[in-house]
Design a protein that fits this description.
By secondary structure, the protein is an alpha+beta fold. It is built from 2 helices and 9 strands, in the order αβββββββββα. The strands form 2 sheets. It has a 5-stranded antiparallel β-sheet, with no helix packed on it. A 4-stranded antiparallel β-sheet has the order 1-9-3-7, with no helix packed on it. A hairpin with a 2-residue loop joins β4 and β5.
Length: 185
């Protein structure tokens, strides 16, 4: 009977260590990418307003970071600017990237970022320029007074129940083996 108790105690300790080592939920709420395809002509300015919108559906303010990941035929651009709500995210001037990452801090609950592109071609031929960007949305601050805000991690929510079920199943299995062993003697 002492062996059964020791096995059960060891199982509980192992499950407790496993639950303690589970990774915490990251602060990144969303990440996605997009490609802007710009049809350019010599000395023709392109302005696309509200090409994309990001709405904060969280209960706390969030930060939005837009980064340039790659460009195709960048030398054809005289000028390119991706901006939203007065914040510049990406700027290309005379085929050279002058700003490759921009941040918008504190987008409040229910607020919207409306992205605008301004572009100007540097060639006399009709052509397409591809500008690829990645967007990352993260939380910016602690929760309001009265509690803490934690992103939902479903595995962490289920872990105590998984541990309890595992412990019960293991205890039943060990008891069955122990009883079977005792009956053979």
């Amino acid at each position: 009977m002492k062996k059964l108790g020791a096995a059960l105690a060891a199982t509980i300790v192992l499950i407790s260590v496993f639950l303690a080592l589970l990774p915490q939920a990251p602060s990144v709420l969303a990440q996605y990418s997009w490609t802007d395809t710009i049809n350019i002509y010599e000395e023709v300015n392109v302005v696309d307003t509200e090409i994309r919108k990001i709405v904060n559906n969280e209960t706390v303010p969030v930060d939005v970071t837009v980064s340039l990941t790659s460009t195709e035929k960048i030398n054809l651009l005289e000028y390119y600017k991706l901006s939203a709500n007065g914040t510049n995210f990406i700027i290309i001037s005379q085929g050279i990237v002058t700003l490759s990452q921009g941040n918008y801090h504190g987008l409040g609950e229910g607020q919207t970022l409306c992205f605008t592109i301004e572009a100007e071609g540097a060639t006399s031929l009709s052509d397409n320029v591809l500008v690829n960007s990645v967007v990352e949305i993260t939380t910016t601050e602690e929760a309001p007074v009265g509690g803490i805000w934690i992103p939902v991690n479903k595995l962490s929510l289920l872990a105590p129940y998984i541990g309890l079920a595992s412990t019960i199943i293991l205890a039943i299995a060990v008891t069955a083996v122990f009883v079977k062993y005792k009956k053979k003697r």
